Amino acid sequence: MYCPKCGKENDYVARSCQFCGADLGGGGAEPSVEETAAASFRVFEYAGFWRRLLAAIIDGIILMVISAVVAFVWLSPFYGRPSALWGGNLGILTAWLYYALMESSSIQATLGKMVLGICVTDLEGNRISFGRATGRHVECAAEN
User: Fold this and answer.
1) How many domains, in total, are found in the chain?
2) What is the tens place of the pLDDT at every residue in 6-44?
3) Which long-range contacts (CB under 8 A, 24 or more apart) does 59-66 make?
4) Which of 42, 90, 100, 141 lies deepest, with the highest CB count within 10 Å?
């Protein structure tokens, strides 16, 4: 049940709002079909262009550092002369794992998105799976 004064969701058995104390009336009654539908409908605010761009820049910087460390550790037996093929593949692998693991984790965001308060969810607001995060990453990479 949503509070008519502050608009926050409360338990259906609550007689007063747990946030502002406003009278909710009734209490204890089973929710109607309309109330149940309204409670299941969530309103999401999508991140705008500038917040997404700034998050992408932050993630890009983080990925450059991570990729450099991974390349140095992974390719050090080649005495600092890695082929372009190895370096490119490691960058792709590192970016994929970074995005897919972070966005499908309980954090639901990369480090850049966390800084800007962006959360990655499915259409119902639930955490996405690793497979879905991988698909999103591949789709974005294919567009660029």
Assistant:
1) 2
2) 777 777 677 777 777 777 775 555 656 665 555 555 567
3) 59/98, 59/99, 59/110, 59/111, 59/112, 59/113, 62/98, 62/110, 62/111, 62/112, 63/91, 63/94, 63/95, 63/98, 66/94, 66/98
4) 100
